[in-house]
Amino acid sequence: MSVRLGFIGTGGIARRHLTNCKDHPDVEIVGQCDVVLERAQAAATEFGGNAYQSAEDLYDKEKPDAVVLCTPPFAHGDLEEGAARRGIHFFVEKPVAIDMAMANRVQRVVEETGITTQVGYMFRLAEGPKKARELLATRAVAMVQAHYYMPGLPGPSWWPKMALGGGQLVEQATHMLDLGRFLAGDVKSVTGRTARVRDWTPPAGYEPAPGLLKYADGFEIPDTTGLVMEYESGALGTLSCSMVPQAAWDNGFKVVADGLLVTLEGATARWVGDEEGNLPAGANWANYVLDEFIAAVKDGTGKTSVPYIEGVKSLAVSLAGYESVKRGGGPVEIAELVD
Ligand SMILES: NC(=O)c1ccc[n+]([C@@H]2O[C@H](COP(=O)([O-])OP(=O)(O)OC[C@H]3O[C@@H](n4cnc5c(N)ncnc54)[C@H](O)[C@@H]3O)[C@@H](O)[C@H]2O)c1
Questions:
Q1: Residue ranges of the domains in the chain?
Q2: Which CATH number fits domain 123-280+315-336: 3.40.50.2300, 3.90.190.20, 3.40.190.10, 3.30.360.10?
Q3: What is the C-alpha separation between 45 and 35, in angstroms, rounded?
Q4: pTM value surpassing 0.90
Q5: Considering only CA atoms, which of 298, 337, 8, 339 is closest in space to residue 188?
Q6: Which residue's CA is the closest to the ligand 1 atom numbered 27?
Q7: pLDDT (0 to 100) of residue 1
Q8: Class for the domain spanning 3-122+287-307
């Protein structure tokens, strides 16, 4: 039997998941929901299902087995709780929330209801990072050096607003912070610095070109951030991220371990030392994370690689960075933030 799937938040990323699900042999798309009803209607026309403006209506009328939540960072909490309390499994895009109160609350409901969850940290299921984790598991890891550079500001209006998107550290660099935890285990404490190094006010006559923006009114987030992490294992880590406009997206890792240097470029791994090799991400690797969730719901195993709690812990690393800045630069313990 197919998994009866609903989509909540039918904007940019939802289209990738909808395209994956449209001809998926194990999926029946039953509903589309967006607070902007026309978006839900457009998705329903293109990909199937009935259109809704309210998630509760979709939950109660379609009674889906599972939903895919693709809402912005601020629009979480009630959507997950509403699904879980009805026994509806959910896949949620990263970051799982805008603050820890929201994330901890949903985690409690997930534990109470025992539903199946998965967070859209797609790098974890790609072949390169999986091989890197396997290689690092038997070695002492010393340094987990990550970077996330994006050449400008994404288009959605919530992006430059701290209370809506959480800035680059919460919204995008979370991929690297989550992957750091996947490669080297949990983070113990975080020290952060943030900066805004350029004026983002649109100059007179600025006409945005397609793609990322160079300027935006009301830009209120840092454009450059550095973190130092101490891992539970004793390893150290750094994250450098910036969204100052330049030529290219660039993200990845150098991981130094006893006898091995591992490089991740995007989701492709290379390693040199007492072993040598390389492994690309795999074809259509960005879809594996949703495919695995669908299989776990269909088979009833409930076993997923990135359950909700992983999203809570990775969000906590970003927010500990901001908290460190607020407190004047000292380390903030993750245990302070996760219930
Ligand atoms: N894993 C990835 O590679 C990846 C890529 C892109 C985006 N994302 C994540 O997906 C999320 C959404 O990003 P996006 O680029 O698609 O944003 P978007 O703004 O393009 O789309 C979000 C949609 O959600 C709708 N929405 C807002 N509140 C809602 C609510 N309460 N109920 C129903 N609909 C609601 C909006 O109207 C909008 O259509 C973000 O958290 C982002 O980080 C993940």
A1: 3-122+287-307, 123-280+315-336
A2: 3.30.360.10
A3: 17
A4: yes
A5: 337
A6: 71
A7: 84
A8: alpha beta
Low-confidence spans in the chain with pLDDT less than 50? none
- Between the CA of 69 and the centroid of ligand 1 the distance, in Å, is 8
pLDDT (0 to 100) of residue 198: 97
Write the single-letter amino acid at 92.
Answer: V
Nearest CA to ligand 1 atom 5: 13
Number of other residues whose CB lies within 10 A of the CB of residue 250: 14
Residue whose CA is at the smallest distance from ligand 1 atom 7 = 13
Q: Tokens 């795999």 identify what position?
A: 282
